[in-house]
């Protein structure tokens, strides 16, 4: 049986709290993400409860550990709805959100996704919302920055290799990469997925290397990302641009672990402390998070997930306050019809529940020295190369030159 972790925040609450339930990875390979997300949610709940709660009711978080196992997810959401009788729901990443959707749709409940890619393309459910800034075409926004920068090189690239994990998020990202290659007239010379349990990436990357691609686009999960980047160095993989949709480069522990090996890599971010990115309230929120992170042993920076989970709850909290309750249809209508001011900026949701305007950052790692995590709090370590509105520098290429430039 999966044990529920009840997080009680604030002073003694009223007899009828507003319960917010969700599955979250507290153990397993994605636990780093889940624990950081939970802390972001706890910070929001603490603040709300200290201010008197929502509509006079305290907030109670009801998270269950899904053990990073999508197979446990349907049972978790059935229990949240049928046994715990939660008022509001959050969902988790792509792999965990997809199996939760049939239960949520059956119960006609609002669901606020924390970090899922292109889920509603399949379900087209009007009660679904997603807090990450993918926009109406997540597969495009996650890949466009990589390819638009690559095609602007002189001379232009002509070939690309695609590789990724055989799992939901990675396959979605690879689908987006194929569309970008077609749009730009690039020839795909390698296109394969590897089992999620892969630990030795030498055969994969050597096969890819044999095709001599100009560009290498990788769609990976945290442990894969570390293995692939290390292997790329070991075999002297030297395309013009290397990176892609690499989950893990956003985590403080992996930034620290890889250190200088990240130089030149292109990946994605949603918030980083570049001078072109200033959102009211985010620095204060992250100060609270970072002060607690060391105590509980979670991601030291909190740039990737916690601020967005906090913002997701800001949206739900405003909807509850403005509609005066937790009637699901009223909440759905309110969220569809309004713009929300959050610590990650202003958010307007489209009919599909995604941000109307995408805002995924493509970044290139630069000037990293050693493994000190504090250097990533400084500007210039992850230079934003896309979108143009937030750009803080240009792509350095080819990949080998980008690595050497960082060493000087």
List keywords for this structure.
alpha/beta; transport; five-stranded parallel β-sheet; Rossmann fold; four-stranded parallel β-sheet; 2 domains; signal; globular; about 20% strand; Peripla_BP_I; amino-acid transport
What does this structure look like?
The protein is an alpha/beta fold and 408 residues long. The chain is built from 13 helices and 14 strands. The protein has helices at residues 31-50, 73-82, 94-106, 120-123, 138-151, 168-184, 202-209, 222-234, 252-258, 282-296, 306-323, 328-336, 399-407, and strands at residues 18-24, 59-65, 88-93, 111-115, 128-130, 159-165, 187-194, 215-220, 241-246, 266-269, 339-342, 345-348, 361-365, 382-386. The strands form 4 sheets. A 5-stranded parallel sheet has the order 2-1-3-4-5, with helices on both faces. It has a 4-stranded parallel sheet with strand order 7-6-8-9, sandwiched between helices. Helix 1 (31-50) runs parallel beside helix 11 and helix 5 crosses helix 6 (168-184). It is globular, with a radius of gyration of 21 Å. InterPro entries: BCAA_transport, Leu-bd, Leu_Ile_Val-bd, Peripla_BP_I.
- SS-derived structural category: alpha/beta
Number of strands: 14
Reading off the top of the CATH hierarchy, the class of the largest domain is best stated as: Alpha Beta
- What is the annotated CATH architecture of the largest domain? 3-Layer(aba) Sandwich
* Relevant CATH superfamily of the largest domain: Response regulator
Write down the overall geometry.
globular
**What is the overall pLDDT average?**
93
Task: Report the C-alpha radius of gyration, rounded.
Answer: 21 Å
Protein name: ABC transporter substrate-binding protein
GO biological process, one term: amino acid transport
Family: Belongs to the leucine-binding protein family.
Keywords: Amino-acid transport, Signal, Transport
